[in-house]
Amino acid sequence: MDNPHSVMIVLPEVTLAVFGLLLLMVGLAKRANVTLVTGVLSLLALAVTACVMICPERLHYLYAGGAAPAFAFNTMFVDDGLARFIKLLLLASSGFSLLLSYSYMDQAKLAKPEYPVLILFATLGMMLMVSANSLLSLYVGLELQSLALYVLAAFNRENAKSSEAGLKYFVLGALSSGLLLYGISLIYGYAGSVDFMRLAFVLRDAQQNLGVIFGMVFICAALAFKVSAVPFHMWTPDVYEGAPTPVTAFFSAGPKIAALGLFVRVLREPLLALSPQWQQVMVFAAIASMLVGSFAGLQQKNLKRLMAYSSIANVGYALTGMAVLSKSGLQAMLIYLAVYFMNTLGAFGVILCLRRQGKPVETLSDLAGLSKTNPLLALAMTMFMFSLAGVPPLAGFFGKYFIFLSAVQSQMVPLAIIGVLTSVVAAFYYLRIIKIMYFDENTAPIDPLSDCGVKITVAVAAIYMLAFTIWPSPVVDGARAAIDSFIR
């Protein structure tokens, strides 16, 4: 049933939307420091939104009668443990992405007040996505996120690669939106409803209906595009390379977390009755993503393109947790996402530090001799690469361990074996980065690091990789509680 106090349920989203609209007005001020003020207030907006979401008084007000999900706006919006867990990851990833961006945007003469506002509205769209309880609210949240991301990808309008990245992302994103709408229309045509709970009831008798199966496939294809899963990954390397590096860092974390969270909600709620069909799609996408991400990354010389293929492989590992059809698999996926987003943001923080005579450099060879000129930065990058490769005892090892363990427990041993083997292949290009930093000769020194925001992000990410090894219970228990709240 709908909650009579809907505003309290959507209060975090309302808070973020109000901040975004206010910052649009602040950005109109003709002052020299307006960009800095907008950026600082954007970080404050994300922090306030997080506090509002986990405020004990709000949670007690909504869940005093039990742990059942709270619905708003005629059940189109849902607040539960899964949504809150993913939203915290989203707010954290957006905050650290903003920290990474300030100095870079200033030096690249891209510092404009609309940049942090676009990050806020993209984050708002992601939060709406993971709380969607209707195909209609799903689409609204997805498009709000996408429209902001299209602009961010092409934010450097003077750069041909950035403009090309934005155009490619927009064209292919419009195609994925069309696939999603067509899939929704097929599902609606059969069920006569867009509400998730109603669809879950009606579709129990539709396992063999061809139109419904086609609709499910189209929806899965559209969401696979958003997470850059194979075979809908073609935009990822070009967009990652062409977009400004802080934007690429944001793309690698927040939108993927949100789209995977939406994937979980759509497949486990309205389309649960079709699990024998969509499980095949998930297994194929997971295997294909792990293979393409691992093998295609071997040939890359550009760091951002390499991270693009790394993200494709990591999406494959996350989809493995979704494909096993068990609570342990979904818990493992959430743990993996909680580790991956900080890992990749830390790695991009190191990439942002690579400047020579004030100009950013992005090729693997530019890392040569980094251990001699900046040993702490090289140590941090080593931790991130080892973690992405799944080397114990860093956090990335445990993320993959939980994923593969859930596959083995669900009698999907071949899928786990493929995951382990592709991890070994991908380890080659992670270890190659470490070899270049420590054993190759330095041809020209990297500029000294002076960006405080990048320092904070890299330091926090490195500490997080170690802290998870020592004290994993906050993340593990949080993921378990989120899935227990979602699957009752």
Could you walk me through the main structural features you see in this protein, from its secondary elements to its overall organization?
- This protein has helices at residues 6-9, 11-26, 34-54, 56-63, 81-107, 114-130, 135-153, 160-191, 196-202, 210-226, 236-242, 245-268, 275-296, 303-323, 327-353, 370-373, 375-389, 395-409, 413-439, 452-470, 473-486, and strands at 70-72, 77-79, 355-356, 359-360.
- The protein has 488 residues and is mostly helical.
- The chain has one domain (6-486).
- A two-stranded antiparallel ribbon has the order 1-2.
- The two termini are 17 Å apart.
Domain module count: 1
Strand order of the largest sheet: 1-2
Task: Give the count of helical stretches.
Answer: 21
Give the helix/strand class: mainly alpha
Low-confidence segments: none
Question: Layout of SSEs?
Answer:
Elements lengths: L5 H4 L1 H16 L7 H21 L1 H8 L6 E3 L4 E3 L1 H27 L6 H17 L4 H19 L6 H32 L4 H7 L7 H17 L9 H7 L2 H24 L6 H22 L6 H21 L3 H27 L1 E2 L2 E2 L9 H4 L1 H15 L5 H15 L3 H27 L12 H19 L2 H14 L2
Antiparallel strand pairs: 1-2, 3-4
Helix pairs in contact: 2-3, 2-6, 3-5, 3-6, 5-6, 5-12, 5-15, 5-20, 5-21, 6-7, 6-12, 7-8, 7-12, 8-10, 8-11, 10-12, 10-13, 11-12, 11-14, 12-14, 12-15, 13-14, 13-19, 14-15, 14-18, 14-19, 15-17, 15-18, 15-20, 15-21, 17-19, 17-20, 18-19
Q: Which keywords apply here?
A:
488 residues, mainly alpha, two-stranded antiparallel ribbon, globular
Task: Give a brief outline of the structure.
The chain has 488 residues and is mostly helical. It has 21 helices and four strands. The protein has a two-stranded antiparallel sheet. A two-stranded antiparallel sheet has the order 3-4.
